[in-house]
Structures are given as C-alpha cells and as structure tokens.
Amino acid sequence: MEISDNQIKALKYLILKSKDAGLETKKICFALIDGSEGLTKSVFFTCNSKDAQYGLHDMVSSNGTTHLQEIMKSVGTEMIFSNHGGYFDAEGIFNSHLKEGEDYTHTLWLSKNRYDKTALELTKECVEKIVLKDPLYNF
Question: H or E segment at 59?
C-alpha cells in the first residue's frame, strides 16, 4: 500500500505534538521518515544521546501518550520505530556495546524489522538539516 503525502504529514504532525519526546528525538524521527522515502525503505541513525533513546522509547511505549506504533499501523505501513543500545560496525554486525571513545551509543530504526541489517544509515548531517515545523499548517 502506498502511503500518501498527507499521511506522512499527519504522522509528522503527531510526532511534533508528542509530549513524550524532546526536539532532538523529533528531529531524528523526521529524518528517519524523510530517509525512508515514503515509508518504503528501512533506515537507521546511530547517536550518543540518551534523550533520543528515551524519547523514542516513550513515544512507542504503551506507558506514553503518543502510541507511535499504533499510529504507524493506522497509516497503513508495516514499518515500525525501534531503538537499541549499540551500533553497526564496518562488517555490518550490530554490536550492543559502546563505540570506542564514547560513553553512550544507541541506534534508532524505522524499518519492518528490529536490528534491520539491510537498513540504510542516515548521517548526522541528515538529522542536523531537519527543521521542525508543523507539516499540516506550516507554522
């Protein structure tokens, strides 16, 4: 099923309005959505931010108020947001420990599968260029 531009805008709007996550997490989610090219390609982003990890967890969790996985289902996609401590190494193996020289490493996905080894990695620049704005009303 093809996801419409309006469905993508609505998804971003609900993420933007979420009380479960901060601005950094929301920028990463927007970058993942953009990188997925209409929720058709698996993507991931590795960072060293506890705020991003906890923010995404809270948006996905049934204890939060966003219920992001239910929103994804209602949009009509099998794609899910997920996050896990660790990173992919040069051989494409997921390591659940810290990158050398970092005190925290976490990976956030937008994919059909957790730990998706076929996902494309987003760069820090992809996330940094995201401007959080209301996609429905352009405020």
Answer: helix 50-60
Tell me the C-alpha distance between 76 and 79, whole Å. Answer: 9
Q: Helix and strand tally (H, E) in the chain?
A: 5, 6
CA atoms within 13 Å, Cβ hemisphere of 101: 0
Residue type present at position 44: F
pTM to 2 decimals? 0.90
Tell me: the pLDDT tens digits for 63-108? 889 999 999 999 889 999 999 888 888 788 887 776 677 667 889 9
Enter the tokens of residue 112: 């059909």
Q: Which two tokens stand for residue 60?
A: 């996905």
Helix (H), strand (E), coil (C) string for 93-137: CEECCCCCCCCCCEEEEEECCCCCCCCEECCHHHHHCCCCCCCCC
* Alpha-carbon gap, residue 36 to 39, rounded angstroms: 5
